[in-house]
Amino acid sequence: MNKPKIVILGAGFGGITTAVKLQKKLSRNDAHITLVNKHDYHYQTTWLHENAAGTLHHDRTRIPVKDIVDTNKIDFVQDTVVEIKPDEKKVVLKNGELDYDYLVVGLGFEAATFGIPGIMENAFTINSINSARLIKQHIEYNFAMYNNEKEKRPERLNIIIGGGGFTGIEFAGEIANRVPELCKEYDIDPKDVRMIVLEGAPTILPGFDPQLIEYAMNSLEARGVEFKTGALLKECRVDGITYEKDEKQEDIPALTTIWAAGVRANSLIETSGLEHNRGKVPVQPDLRAPSHPDVFVVGDCALIMNEETGRPYPPTAQIAMQEAETIAHNLSALVHGKENLESFEFINRGSVASLGDSDAIGVIFGDKKIFGWTASFMKKMIDNRALFKIGGLGLVLKKGKFNIF
Amino acid sequence: MNKPKIVILGAGFGGITTAVKLQKKLSRNDAHITLVNKHDYHYQTTWLHENAAGTLHHDRTRIPVKDIVDTNKIDFVQDTVVEIKPDEKKVVLKNGELDYDYLVVGLGFEAATFGIPGIMENAFTINSINSARLIKQHIEYNFAMYNNEKEKRPERLNIIIGGGGFTGIEFAGEIANRVPELCKEYDIDPKDVRMIVLEGAPTILPGFDPQLIEYAMNSLEARGVEFKTGALLKECRVDGITYEKDEKQEDIPALTTIWAAGVRANSLIETSGLEHNRGKVPVQPDLRAPSHPDVFVVGDCALIMNEETGRPYPPTAQIAMQEAETIAHNLSALVHGKENLESFEFINRGSVASLGDSDAIGVIFGDKKIFGWTASFMKKMIDNRALFKIGGLGLVLKKGKFNIF
């Protein structure tokens, strides 16, 4: 009898958690499991804004796959997925092809630019170790350049953050803490630096509690961050941006624009032949693709409706890791010939946005608002919990955040 | 009776040593001394290649003027010299003017580009804290970019060093040590990085002992540095260079070109009306300008012939600091109404070129060749001695180099 072949695409929060859970449930004799990832490391996507600002080294954010995955039980293939062919039960990689009996798609997100001109070419996005450390270097390079030019160029010191959602605000909190250090390093007057958050909605962090939003804005404004709400980015050039507010267009010169206003699922979904809804797979309750019951979808590529609000759950690490547990359970059931698959149910453990190393805001236990040190502590515990889920206590001790006092 | 006014231009090795020596010899009642410098810090020009490579933080290389100069005895003016008017006994600054009875000109060097197209615009020079830390950031930025591009661009990882003299070779030694760290930081194969020294003469370090040159080349080649001798830089573009060797021209793509092949005295000398010889003042034995006996010239702006070789002494920190001692002595004599001024005599304490943190070559005690650990140790002692001369034991303990084992 042939062992079933399970292929997991992506070692993000969803893919790596699926792999880690599966290696506990299945032995080499049960199934042949392959994990495919572009890099030989997993990274904590939710920490990348810290690497991008330069407040945390990127090596703290990434974890070698072989440190988490038991390579006696799971084969690891470092390669890039080029195409998913669910009708042929095949995945095309850059350097090869894989057949599967069961597939788990955890290929994450891409930036969505909504057709705004110049974003692709001129803005930075916080979506990988490579892009995050480039942002850090790009900002630092411009600060280093500033005093080398006779004619001072303010655009070297202006940092535009497109989007006042979670990522934008968390990045603003980090860069606000980093700028005074950079100014000291390069003999620059902090008053010459501008950090500007552009948000199209009437408020930052739309949907968050207004009291917490007020708290966040005060915390960031005190550290020099400016907010332009109801302001739409119209164009991003290499040396500046144009935004529209109250039907008036304004330019800001800036060599650094961080685009944090939109994400979409990996575009491979759209071209895969899997049934999809605006690029995401509207998974069944058991997290299988409706069109292909041998394909599970995890994380940012899966579309799951929140019955209470009638809107899809936003893509977060929290939901991806919970989905992975359900998928691991269901895959194990299928391999063992069981018919009853578990239905996914999201347990909302709350949501905390960091505002820098020692400040944060959030909602936990359903409706309890927290902010300041309490929230910052919670945020670090959430980060540590994610590490624990993936790599146990050893990983928490190695990469965890303990700078809590 | 009016106290004589002494103005010292520049806080480089020559200017700062003059100031430090003078404050020991003269009191506030003897003379009114003013030190003018562009920045509020002195820097060890001979260490800048380490800051540029990123192997030493630039704050180790610079010293606040007020930490060395006794501001009870010497006024410090942070300003840029715009013009020297020796016939009017006046110095024009960006934000003012100063009269003097005695002037010390220690305005250092500029890059000499010999009319090679593109050097001014596209090459970096190692001549200030600002330019050195920019080089560090520029190189690191390009390494950070490398893996962010689908089409890999080798010019991001190619580093051209124009000139195999002291500065070029010392920089090569540092960057050769830094590159493996950068490769680790940005997941780059060290084999993809090129460091290329271009030297017009048939050998690097022209004039140095051939055995030591051989040693230096072996040490650097073992760490990946390539040498092209008898090779003239013909053009420097923003993304590459053209050099000529054996009457054949070759291009090398490179976003980083360090120009270390030529220096000249500060161009203010030429426009000052001081008698000069190709931009330098051919000082009298007492180090006064032949055309203006109330002007002393120290360091890179002074031309002093080596009687033994019939050629001018090269501009070094060693000779600048020795000149400063003579100038301080002679100024003090003049202020005290003495007629007999001391003649400058250069005492050659040898010459050691660093090849990175733990390797060096040099000649000391006239003709003793040293290399490897011994030379590296000597180099660090030379660096520490310069600190001692300027700021005593306190400064040595604060900024000195003790990583000698």
Q: In words, what does this structure look like?
A:
2 copies of one chain form a homodimer. By secondary structure, chain A is of the alpha/beta class. Chain A has 3 domains: about 5-110 and about 265-350, FAD/NAD(P)-binding domain, CATH 3.50.50; about 120-260, FAD/NAD(P)-binding domain; about 350-405, no CATH class. Helices cover about 30% and strands about 25% of the residues of chain A. The first copy, chain A, has 10 helices and 26 strands. In chain A, the strands form 9 sheets. Chain A has a 5-stranded parallel sheet, with helices on one face. A 4-stranded parallel sheet of chain A has the order 13-12-11-17. A 3-stranded antiparallel sheet of chain A has the order 6-7-8, with no helix packed on it. In chain A, a hairpin with a 3-residue loop joins strand 25 and strand 26. The longest helix of chain A is centred in the last third of the chain and has 28 residues, at about 370-400. Chain A is globular. Chain A starts with a strand and ends in a 6-residue tail after the last helix. The interface of A and B includes residues 141, 145 and 147 of A.
